Amino acid sequence: MNLLVIGKGGREHALVWKLKQSRRVENVFCAPGNAGTGVDGINVPIDYTVNDFDRLIHFAKKEEIYLTIVGPEDPLAAGIVDAFQKAGLRVFGPSKAAARIEGSKVFAKNLMRNADVPTAEFKIFDHPDPAKYWVESREYPVVVKADGLAAGKAVIVCKNNEDARKAVERIMIRDEFGQKAGRQIVIEKRLDGEELSVLALVSGRAILPLPPTQDHKAVFDGDQGPNTGGMGAYCPAPKGTPELMAKIEEEVFVPVVHAMKRGRFPFKGLLYGGIMLTSQGPRVLEFNARFGDPETQPLLMRLKSDLLDLLDAVVDEKLSEIGESAVVWDPRPSVCVVICSGGYPGKYDVGKVIMGLDEAAKVPDVKVFHAGTKLEGGRVVTDGGRVLGVTALGDTLAAAKKSAYEAVSKIKFPGMHFRTDIGDRALKPSI
Ligand code: AMP
Ligand code: GLY
Prior knowledge:
Bound molecules: adenosine monophosphate, glycine
Mean pLDDT: 95
Structural class: alpha+beta
Strand order of the largest sheet: 3-2-1-4-5
CATH topology of the largest domain: D-amino Acid Aminotransferase, Chain A, domain 1
Helix content: 25-40%
CATH architecture of the largest domain: 2-Layer Sandwich
Number of strands: 22
């Protein structure tokens, strides 16, 4: 059968690569894809960002696509799943109503409050003046967030009242993150601790947690510099002990998923909890309504079971029939190092020729997932901020890290940047 993956990042390349291994699958198409998905699958030049889903639907019908898998958050928030379903097509991902758990921070915070899910204390504002007045009497630091999607950028940590006033103005008055995204804001306490990414397949009330992963958000070593989409990840994260994972399932996933079902917007897809491990216990920072990027890369590198079987179970509401122990994982840990364009997450150049991909691929137990890349005149060139996700398995986390960096050392393009400390938090627990 034929599948269609929507998106063009490292996450989508990992999905295409893994789904292509399914014994039931013939072709995996990717719209629009990147240079890597064009090798492991077949790229389709249809842009999902314009929210014109008709062309994708037309393609899915023409190619008799058995299942479409939606990678990024924007089309989910815009209702791509509802549009596909209306057209009679099978699709993996939450409905527009359920995707609000990521698309609207106000929605997510209210849902957590109602379901009694541990999260940072917060207040919601729909006008700048009361927000500016309220921040005068706060204990700092606080975090000011725009309600809507802004690629993780509209989350501003404020050390004092002056910072907080400026953040409110940037989001609500100057509309720096878009008019719609900044119509409402959430102001919450800043939480301290390590972040854990907990991804689970969810279908109605059924929850199947996947092994814990840890991302590295800041652009420079030692968690310095601005936040990015993620500079690297590893799996499993030792911080996510079986006890902690059970607690997170019970205190976070179960109440949220039940509340969504009761509210008549049941979640079907991949639910991602960004969890801060505070001294008072786990607290939810955010939910994502999709696979994480880069987390999906080290995660799928370890998955031995057929991913299509799992996605089918979600779509067909048969997830409760699959026990956690029925999903087989490679016992070896994995590490993913993201190579990005110089300047990212700010301005960066594109079109740089990438050298050494073949040499990197020769390193045993390594897969180089592509993100912002494209083919130009037979050569692979950079085409985005995050360019590659070099992912390795190893007998130990240290061995996986060593292989990943060995492969990274083979790759060259002008201005490239990567962190040198991916995995160190688990390897050197004093960090
Ligand atoms: P969000 O878009 O809400 O997921 O936030 C993106 C990132 O900002 C999170 O992954 C954290 O690294 C950081 N962040 C968000 N909220 C808080 C908070 N209350 N305290 C500390 N860090 C936060
Ligand atoms: N790595 C963070 C995210 O996928 O949102």
